User: Which sequence fits this backbone?
């Protein structure tokens, strides 16, 4: 069972390695798929998971000891299947801290992916544009992150470290894989969608309220897009050795002017995501194929080095 542990006076609800291992065995017994790439579908981007063929779908509520997502626009299932011949696992619906879950619980599925054989994680989200040069519908390749909840002590890695996942103090300067970022840019060029591609820094807030004008002014000094997800997942993914590539779909411009009548709202976010969803799906499809080739290339290089005694 998931257990609560006490750490410097905080109660932290976390999953032990063995509990996640048990979930992975439950799934291994029920699907023949062995995914090497994981995808987390952001708000309004669940269509990515629908693209898979030969699907095995597990609703979150049917998986023992799995959290259940509560946000509309996130329907909540793990989908195993194939995209362009590559075996994938997709999370359709993710867990946000504002739903009331502890960070470690929100990020647990990333560790599950690791135990199921995933090497590369593709994270996607809907985000507000902080950068004044960004437009609704732009796709930002995430080059770095600001994990604001972790600034305040709320890291998914808080608590006793289990070395089977990773080290106590992981570096984060290389969390977003530079090779995969290059590959993503290449895919966008091939698909001729590079005119609305951007590259920038993603800021995670705890939500669920959107940002005040003062907060937008503050955040836009440091970040290009803001949302309520992703950083905890990427932190956990990098900690356990997954390669990460991430994208923010800019669904609204953050309001940085006291005189405007505009207000951010969830319907606007979902509508903007839906309008760009097809391009986004084509990008991810192409990226999956190339990530797989890249992994094969790395494996070949590794085996040549081993044969040569390096
Ligand atoms: N702020 C925070 N999260 C978001 C936004 C935003 O403007 N848009 C989509 N998710």
Assistant:
């Amino acid at each position: 069972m998931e257990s609560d542990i006490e750490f410097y006076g905080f109660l932290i609800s976390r999953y032990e390695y063995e509990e996640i291992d048990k979930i992975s065995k439950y799934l291994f017994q029920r699907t023949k798929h062995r995914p090497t790439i994981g995808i987390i579908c952001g708000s309004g981007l669940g269509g990515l998971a629908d693209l898979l063929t030969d699907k095995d779908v597990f609703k979150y509520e049917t998986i023992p000891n799995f959290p259940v997502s509560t946000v509309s626009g996130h329907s909540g299932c793990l989908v195993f299947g194939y995209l362009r011949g590559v075996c994938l696992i997709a999370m359709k619906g993710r867990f946000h801290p504002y739903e009331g879950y502890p960070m470690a619980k929100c990020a647990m599925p990333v560790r599950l992916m690791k135990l199921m054989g995933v090497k590369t994680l593709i994270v996607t989200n809907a985000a507000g544009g902080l950068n004044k040069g960004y437009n609704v519908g732009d796709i930002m390749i995430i080059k770095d992150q600001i994990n604001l909840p972790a600034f305040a002590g709320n890291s998914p890695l808080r608590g006793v470290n289990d070395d089977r996942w990773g080290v106590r103090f992981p570096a984060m300067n290389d969390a977003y894989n530079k090779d995969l970022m290059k590959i993503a840019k290449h895919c966008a060029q091939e698909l001729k969608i590079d005119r609305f591609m951007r590259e920038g820094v993603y800021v995670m807030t705890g939500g669920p309220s959107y940002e005040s004008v003062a907060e937008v002014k503050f955040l836009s000094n440091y970040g290009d897009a803001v949302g309520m997800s992703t950083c905890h997942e990427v932190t956990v993914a990098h900690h356990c050795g997954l390669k990460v590539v991430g994208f923010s779909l800019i669904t609204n411009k953050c309001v940085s002017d006291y005189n405007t009548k505009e207000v951010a709202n969830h319907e606007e976010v979902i509508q903007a995501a839906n309008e760009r969803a097809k391009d986004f799906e084509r990008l991810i499809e192409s990226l999956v194929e190339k990530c797989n080739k890249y992994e094969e290339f790395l494996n070949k290089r590794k085996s040549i080095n081993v044969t040569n005694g390096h």
